[in-house]
Amino acid sequence: MKIITGIEAMASLCRGWKEKGLRIGFVPTMGGLHEGHISLMRAARAGTDAVVVSIFVNPTQFCPGEDLASYPRDIERDMPLLENEKVDVLFHPQPEAMYPAGYRTYVEVHDFQDKLCGAVRPGHFRGVCTVVLKLFNIVRPDVAYFGWKDAQQVLVIKRMAVDLNLDMEIVGLPLVRDPDGLAMSTRNAYLSPVERAAARLLSKSLAEAEAMIAAGETDVQAVVARVRNVLAAAPEIEIEYVAAVDTKNLEPLDRIAGDGLLALAARVGKTRLIDNILIHPKGEAPC
Ligand code: AMP
Q1: Mutation test residue for ligand 1: of 40, 75, 125, 173, the one with most atoms within 8 Å of CB
Q2: Binding-site residues, ligand 1, Cβ < 6 A
Q3: Residue 287's pLDDT is what?
Q4: Which residues of the chain have pLDDT under 70?
Q5: CA atoms of 143 and 167, how far apart (whole Å)
Q6: At CA 38, angle to CA 18 and CA 157, rounded to 5?
Q7: What separation in Å is there between the alpha carbon of 62 and the centre of ligand 1?
C-alpha cells in the first residue's frame, strides 16, 4: 500500500490509473478505523480496480467546542487494517495542504444541511461537503462509498452530486453494528463502561420502533414516543432529537409510509452518538 500525503502526487497517480482505463473506488474517512469503515473498503475492492482510502480529520466540519483536538488519530494502528483490505493507497493530507492560507470556498446543500444533525451542529455539513468535493476533485473516483450510519451525510452528498453534476456514483452501504446492537463509531471509544452499557438503548429503541412499524404502526408520534421512552430508562442519555423524515428532502413524515428515515442523536455522558434505521413499510426495497 502506498501512503500519499501530497495533493498533486495523489491527483497524478489517479490520472495515471484513468489513462489505463482503471475504475477508481474511494472511501473517505477520518481514521479510527473499525468494521464499519472496513465494510466500505471491501465494497470498493470488490467493485472497482483501484482503491483509495483517505484519512483526514477535517477541521471545517467540527463546530467550536467539539472534539477536533481529541478525535482519535492513530495512523500506525489504522495502517495494518488498510493493508489487510488490500487498499492501494492511503491518502493522508495535512490540514494546511487542504486549507492553505487564503482558503475561502465552501459548498452548501441548502435545506438538507440545516435539518436533524445540521440544526444542532451548524456548519457541519458545509464542512463535510466542502472536504468531500475537494477530495473528489483530487481523486476523481468513479465510485465513492459512504455508510448509512451517517444517513443525513449520505443524503446530503447524493444531493450535492446531483446538483453539481458530479460524474460519479455515490454508494450508501448498511450501518454496521457491534454484536449488542450499538452502531460502530470511532467515538464509542470515549464511552465509560457505564455509558457503553447505556448506549445499547439507542439501537434497542430503534429496534422496538422497527418492530412497531413492521406490525403496521403508521403513527409517527407513537413510534417516536416509543423511542423516547426506551431512551428515558438510562439517566446517562440526553436526547438531542428523534425524528422520522422523508429521505427525499429530510422533511418530517406525516405518517409512516414510503421510504423514510427514523434517526436519533443523543449525548451519552459527554459523547454525542447517532443512530438510525431506514423505514421500508410493507417490506419495500430500500431507496
Ligand atoms: P468517519 O471516519 O466517521 O468520517 O466515517 C467514514 C465513513 O465510514 C462514512 O461514510 C461513515 O458513514 C462510514 N461509517 C462509519 N461508521 C459506520 C458504521 N457503523 N457502519 C457503516 N458505515 C460507517
Answers
A1: 40
A2: 29-30, 36-37, 39-40, 146-147, 149-150, 175-176, 183-186
A3: 45
A4: 281-287
A5: 9
A6: 60
A7: 16
Which atom of ligand 1 is found nearest the CA of 32? 2
Q: What separation in Å is there between the alpha carbon of 216 and the centre of ligand 1?
A: 31
Q: Which of 275, 273, 250, 253 has the alpha carbon at shortest distance from 263?
A: 275
Contact status, residue 247 vs residue 287, Cβ threshold 8 Å: yes
Reference 131, options 50, 59, 27; nearest CA is 59
Q: Please name which of 245, 237, 234, 232 lies closest in space to residue 265, comparing C-alpha atoms.
A: 237
Which of 131, 146, 173 gets mutated to test ligand 1 (max ligand atoms within 8 A of its CB)?
A: 146
Alpha-helix residue ranges (DSSP H) falling in the chain? 7-19, 35-47, 75-84, 95-98, 117-120, 124-139, 151-163, 193-214, 220-231
- Of all protein residues, the one whose alpha carbon is nearest to atom 15 of ligand 1 is 36
Residues annotated as part of the active site: 37
Which helix (H) or strand (E) is 264 found in, with range? strand 260-268
pLDDT tens for each residue of 232-285: 999 999 999 999 999 999 999 999 987 899 999 999 999 999 999 999 765 444
Count CB atoms within 10 A of the CB of residue 187. 15
Ligand 1, atom 18: nearest CA belongs to which residue?
36
Q: Give the three-state DSSP class for 203.
A: helix
